[in-house]
Amino acid sequence: MNDQIDFSTFGKQFSEKIFQGMLTDTQWAAQMVEVMRPNFFDVEYLRYLCERYFAYYEKYKSFPTLGLLVTLVRDELAETSDHILRDQVVDYLIRMKANPNPGDVGYVKDKSLQFCKQQAFKQALEKAIDLIQGDNFDKVMELMKGAMAVGMPHSTGHDFFKDFEARFQKQSRNVVSTGFKQLDDKLIFNGGVGRGELACCIAATGVGKSHWLVAMGAAALRQGKNVVHYTFELTETAVGIRYDSNLVGVPSNDVQDHKETVMKVYASKDFGRLIIKEYPTGSASVMTLRNHIEKLSLKGFKPDLVIVDYADIMRAAGKSYEDLRHELKMVYEELRNLAMELQLPIWTASQSNRSGAVADIVGTENMSESYGKAHVADILISISRKADEKASGAGRLFVAKNRAGRDGVIFPLSIDTSMSMFEILSEQSLTLDEIAKQKNSSSKALLREKFEEVMRAHKENA
Fold first, then answer.
1. Taking all residues of the chain, what is their mean pLDDT, rounded to a whole number?
2. 245 contacts 416 by C-beta, under 8 angstroms
3. Is 25:59 a contact under the CB 8 Å cutoff?
4. For residues 303 and 306, what is the distance between their CA atoms, to the nearest angstrom?
5. 239 FRET partner, CA 20 to 30 A, in 12, 56, 165, 334?
């Protein structure tokens, strides 16, 4: 059996990726806690960080984020006389923050976990030899079963009273803002769409799904975030013009006549980077997107937000399905898995059914083909507007599902598809329950009355 007892033969860069993998993937870190010891790292600054990372988990049954880890070690390092260790820790944390998604992390995780499990098995064999000499075969069997089980994905659950402290450790939720303070409110999206979350916009044909996705991407760019936008119906340049229109405030049909204005705005503001990638309708799978993101990573582009326009016209990876609803559910599951794997928020859209085209409010029951899509998404919002409302730009936004906070709330919208812009017209939302409680008025009439009231106020202010 190999006598190697640390990660030295893998190299320093490999070891750095191991710790970074644990910090960014807490489920995998929970597996490593069972089989790995900090002294497996042959460099001191990684041992130092790993010891504190594991000690925090042992106490609170949850792992600290990068920001919290920095806080934990900052004061201790400030008082240390070991300036070399302090400088190495600071340098590593800065490099890790600058490169949050290094390449080959999947390979690093598999290789290092395999190594740690081999060490655990080796230790079990050494103990088993002593037990066999004492004819204690029952304990040998228990020992070997335990060695086989360590490092396997598992959870014994949250021990409610024993793990009390874990519930009161504030975990930072890294989010990308929607650009709307009403949606980003603490009680609703709590800042925006978080890493590993799948958000979906439901709307009928021609209502503005693609425009909403551009608005979400543009909001992220204004925050300095990097965005990759996948389009399966429009060309890359057509989508690019929509971004120009939104970011600069020029109608899309006029963008090409205002080249100097567009360039001046981009030169004066610090936007994030945007990559737009087109695939033919029905040709792309989640595997296609994953491979493309990996290629971008090799070229130094790290997305903070992924836009998929839109998931309903993707295909499932690998297996083909005779029933469309099963394939669509699988596409959404794969898309959410991608969000969790990359620790990125993903925005996509879904077509509503025929009844959704004439409904005042589009709900999850109006998702076409597969209701299972609603089960997968973390956030579902819908946009509805009827044919007679399009000229005035009137519409409604409904938060149909929200794992981060409150749902079932409605906001009146102003929609300008010429610039892919949306405006929420009221600080106050209206709930379906509030509509239903009203006597002597149908929900349809009350909703229209409420909306017209807000529209009148908006016009007067304008």
1. 83
2. no
3. no
4. 7
5. 334
Which residue's structure tokens are 């839109």? 310
Q: Which two tokens stand for residue 192?
A: 């925006």
Q: What is the number of alpha carbons within 13 Å of residue 400 lying toward its C-beta?
A: 25
Interatomic CA distance for residues 382 and 388, integer angstroms: 18
Using only C-alpha atoms, the chain has a radius of gyration, in whole angstroms, of 26
Does 154 have pLDDT greater than 50? no
Kindly report the pTM of this predicted structure: 0.66
Between residues 271 and 458, the one the model is more confident about: 271
Query: 201-215, 290-304, 361-375: which has the minimum mean pLDDT?
Result: 361-375
Question: Does the pLDDT of residue 405 top 60, yes or no?
Answer: yes
Burial class of residue 298 in the structure, from the number of CB atoms within 10 Å of its CB (0-12 exposed, 13-18 middle, 19+ buried): exposed
Distances in Å between the Cα of 298 and the Cα atoms of 68, 123, 294 are 29, 39, 6
Indicate if the pLDDT at residue 453 is higher than 70. Answer: no
List of E strands, 375-436: 379-384, 394-402, 409-416, 421-424, 430-431
Query: Residue 97 burial by CB count (10 A; 0-12/13-18/19+): exposed, middle or buried?
Result: exposed
**Nearest CA among 223, 92, 185 for reference residue 426:** 185
**What does the buried/exposed string (b/e) look like for 338-347 if buried means 16 or more CB atoms within 10 Å of the residue's CB?**
bbeebebbbb
The type of residue at 396 is R
Q: Using pLDDT thresholds of 50, 70 and 90, give the confidence band for residue 140.
A: low
